[in-house]
Amino acid sequence: MSDVEYLRSFLTEYADFPKPGVGFLDIFPLLRNPLAFETLITHFVHHILSQTIPKSLLKKVDVVVGLDARGFLLGPTIALRLGAAFVPVRKKGKLPGPCVSVSYEKEYGIDVFEMQSGVIQRGQNVVVVDDLIATGGSAKAAGQLVEMQGGTVLEYLFLIEIVMSREWQYDKAPVYSIVQYN
Hints:
Layout: H1 3-8, E1 12-14, E2 24-26, H2 28-31, H3 34-52, E3 63-67, H4 71-82, E4 85-91, E5 99-106, E6 109-116, E7 125-133, H5 137-148, E8 152-162, E9 175-181
Parallel strand pairs: 3-4, 3-7, 7-8, 8-9
Antiparallel strand pairs: 1-2, 4-6, 5-6
Helix pairs in contact: 3-4
C-alpha cells in the first residue's frame, strides 16, 4: 500500500457536517495513530526536500506558515524537521501585538486572517501548510500576508484537496496535495 493510500484510509467522511449538504473530512483519526502521523509528516518533508527546495533560488525554507487551526497541528513538526521557524496565521483578534491583516472570501462569507508584524523577514522563503484546500481563499490570504512582510511563498501544502476548478489557484506559487477528493 502506498503512503497516499495509507493516509487516505485514516480519513473519515461525515455527511451534512457542519451543516446540511456539506461533507466533512475528519483528519483526527490520522493524528491519533503515531505511525500514520509520522507517515504524513515524512511525506511532506520528503516532498519539500526533494521537490520544493531544489526548485528554489536560495535552496532552503526559512519559515513554515500554518493556517488556523489545523495547520497548527502539522506546521510546527514540519518546521522542526526542516530547521525552519513556524509562524501561525490566525483569525482576526487572536494574536497579540501589531499584526498585518487581509480579508478573504470563504464558501460562506468574508473573513479576516492576521499574522504578527515582523515575523517574516524580507527575502525569506516560506511554505504554507494546512489540512485542506477547497476554494483557496484562506491559502491566497496567507500568501498575501507573507508577501506583505517581504517573504516569498515557495509552495502551498495540503493533506487534502477538494478538486474543483483550479480557478482558485494562487498563481504565484504551486499547490501540492497528498490526497484528492472530488
